[in-house]
Design goal:
Elements lengths: L1 H4 L2 E6 L5 E7 L10 H15 L4 E5 L4 H15 L8 E5 H4 L6 H16 L2 E5 L21 H11 L4 E5 L3 H9 L4 E2 L1
Parallel strand pairs: 3-6, 3-7, 4-5, 5-6
Antiparallel strand pairs: 1-2, 2-4
Helix pairs in contact: 5-6
Length: 184
């Protein structure tokens, strides 16, 4: 979390512990070398967000400092006289609950709060939302990977910009099949 705070002037803890709010992007040089296709995708995501369309994006194979630069760049590009974007960073490893259904309840509260406050949602270590269990061994295991489908469905109902940081290849393939642009 500390590295993301370096690219923003203001930081505060949100209403529950794994949420952090970043405001006022710091004046840092955007020195991130993206391939032309990735830069074009980033600009497309920003353009859709300006039009207040539901927009989702995945970051993969980025260092934390590069992610901080991308978040700073997005916030600066979406800033205008009447609107200072707030990026809500969700530490997914701490956000996921042990009990079935609790994570979904937390996600519902988070999305409602984000829609009300017009936050940009950044899911740090979103792999945690995909569940750790892959083999269905008992009846409870089949619900282990339900959080991501629930999250994407919930987000599609609101005009939010949502960014997921994903590193595992199987999770990247799942999001690619859902049509979410992947920057790597």
């Amino acid at each position: 979390m500390k590295i993301y705070r370096q690219t923003f002037s203001e930081y505060q803890q949100a209403y529950i512990k794994p949420l952090h709010l970043l405001t006022k992007p710091a004046d840092v040089k955007y020195d991130l070398s993206l391939k032309d296709e990735a830069h074009s995708q980033l600009e497309d995501v920003i353009a859709k967000s300006r039009k207040q369309l539901t927009t989702q994006m995945v970051l993969s194979n980025f260092s934390q400092s590069d992610i901080g630069l991308v978040l700073n760049y997005i916030a600066r590009e979406l800033k205008h006289e009447k609107f200072e974007p707030t990026i809500c960073v969700i530490d997914c490893a701490a956000f996921v609950e042990q009990y079935i259904g609790e994570t979904e309840k937390n996600l519902a509260k988070l999305v409602a709060q984000a829609a009300t406050n017009n936050w940009i949602l950044f899911f740090d270590e979103a792999d945690a939302l995909f569940g750790k269990r892959t083999d269905i061994k008992d009846t409870h295991d089949r619900y282990a990977n339900q959080e991501v489908s629930y999250l994407l469905d919930r987000l599609s109902r609101h005009n939010l910009l949502c960014i997921l940081e994903i590193s595992q290849k199987t999770n990247l393939e799942r999001t690619k099949r859902l049509g979410v642009p992947i920057l790597s």
